[in-house]
Amino acid sequence: MTATLERPTTARTTDARITGGSSEIIHTDVTMTPSPIEHLTPQQIEQLGRELDEIRAETMDSLGEKDAQYIRRVIAAQRYLEIGGRAALFFSGNPIAWVAGTAALSASKILDNMEVGHNIIHGQWDWMRDPKIHSSTWEWDNVTPADHWKNSHNKVHHTYTNVVGHDNDLGYGIMRVDDAQKWFPGYLIQPVTQFINATLFEYGIAAYDLELGKHWATRHDNPEWMAEAKKVVNKIKKQAGKDYLLFPLLSGPNFLTTLGANVVANLVRNYWTHSVIMCGHFPAGVKTFAKNSIEGETRGEWYLRQMLGSANITGSTAMHIATGHLSYQIEHHLFPDMPSRRYPEIAPKIEALFDKYGLEYVTGPLHKQVGSAWSEIIRLSLPNDTSLRQTIGILRTKGMKGLRARARQTRHVYAR
């Protein structure tokens, strides 16, 4: 079957979770004081939405053969990197072959998950009508089945972006992510648990997509959940069998060095994807929202929440491709079904709208954004308005009881 290109429709699909229309009040409730949107009127927010709709329509109308060629080239590059990397690792007993093979395999896994898999599963290339590059058929090099990711990420996260209590991508349900969340002593170790999460990121995502903590105790009474869990177990077996058994065995006497290379490649992919995703929603300046923000939310307000709840990363073209263009997280959250290669093109227009409406366009180089995200992880592991030095001092002199008292005293003292 020969795939044909089809000009995508510019009309945004009606989403029952977004009311559309206009309102006499602003529903968006940012969890900080003063609110960064208090200068906006409901009419201005809806006008912002209309201007964003125009940007989307103009871009989607211009998609064509160059875009199709781009994704096909990236897929080909990813496959050549994997083939070359695995071929080199047949000789992994040689240090040079080990380094070259591990680097190529790491790069192929990053491309597969970020610029290829994540974006195809979002439906960014469905307009091509190519059954081999379509969200309904694509599966990726990750233990999380694509259909699970579509639900937890595409549907839940992108609808309820940074709404505390609804968006589980915000800390993956295991972190304190906002000053307004009540502090508990268990949060003290969240920098450690988050590092473990980064190390085992693909497995953590699989558990998160399954809502493992929510369903584990009642699993035997929930056959539907057990069926979904079996999908994950089968995917884990497939991935582990390929990386940790098949290709090491094919390496013959180099079994152990090839096994080690595959472990390292998966670790590199995990740390990279975790870093990129954390930079998208956790650096300083990114806003979170109260649950009531989505009650009666208009289309313009949905756009506004995506703008305030995301952050970008500056860098080279190679870096942007390696991030799956999630370095343009703001643009991606505004238009998740727009082909990723178009985000750099529209970014200046989006930033201009931030300036026009008096909003902060959060961006910075990778090292700054990663550092900022981890600083927030550490800060929020402690009681509000309490430094690490203060925390240690309180624990030494008053113990955990004293730190709990401090948390109660500062519960409503929020960082700006």
UniProtKB/TrEMBL annotation:
GO CC term (a single one): membrane
Sequence ranges assigned to domain Fatty acid desaturase in this UniProt record: 98-363
InterPro entries, per the entry: FA_desaturase_dom, Fatty_acid_desaturase
Nucleotide-binding found in the keyword field: no
E.C. designation(s): 1.14.19.3
Record GO biological process: lipid biosynthetic process
GO molecular function, one term: acyl-CoA 6-desaturase activity
Keyword annotations: Oxidoreductase
Protein's recorded name: Linoleoyl-CoA desaturase
